[in-house]
From TrEMBL:
PANTHER family named in the record: COILED-COIL DOMAIN-CONTAINING PROTEIN 169
UniProt entry tagged with the keyword Electron transport: no
UniProt keyword annotations, A-Z: Coiled coil
Protein name per the record: Coiled-coil domain-containing protein 169
Gene encoding the protein: CCDC169
Alphabetical list of InterPro entries matching this protein: DUF4600 (IPR028022)
Organism of provenance: Galeopterus variegatus
Record flagged with keyword Ion transport: no
Superkingdom of origin organism: Eukaryota
Coiled-coil portions: 35-87
Length: 103
């Protein structure tokens, strides 16, 4: 029965009431199916968000490690440059330092 109607069933056939009951049951089933589909989609999206979040976290951590390694390389190269420059009066100092460098 539709909204706004009274609960007076006088003059309404049993077959008509059965038909409306079946229609209501059908609508209820459709709504329940929609709710299940929405819950499934929510679970998929949450899983996708979790996977993407961990992927970005891994990328971030990897980038931090790479940055640390590059900082260490920069410091090491600066130290080597200082050694190569050495004494400006000793013209062969850069060659001696270069020969002493580990490979």
């Amino acid at each position: 029965m539709g909204e706004g109607r009274s609960d007076n069933f006088d003059g309404v056939s049993t077959d008509r009431l059965k038909l409306e009951l079946q229609e209501e049951i059908h609508m209820k089933d459709i709504v329940q199916l929609s709710v299940l589909e929405i819950r499934h989609k929510i679970a998929e999206l949450e899983a996708q968000l979790k996977n993407e979040g961990s992927e970005w976290k891994t990328r971030y951590e990897t980038q931090l490690e790479l940055n640390d390694q590059l900082e260490k390389q920069i410091i090491s190269l600066k130290e080597k440059m200082e050694k190569i420059r050495g004494n400006p009066l000793d013209r062969l100092s850069s060659i001696r330092v270069y020969e002493q460098m580990p490979v």
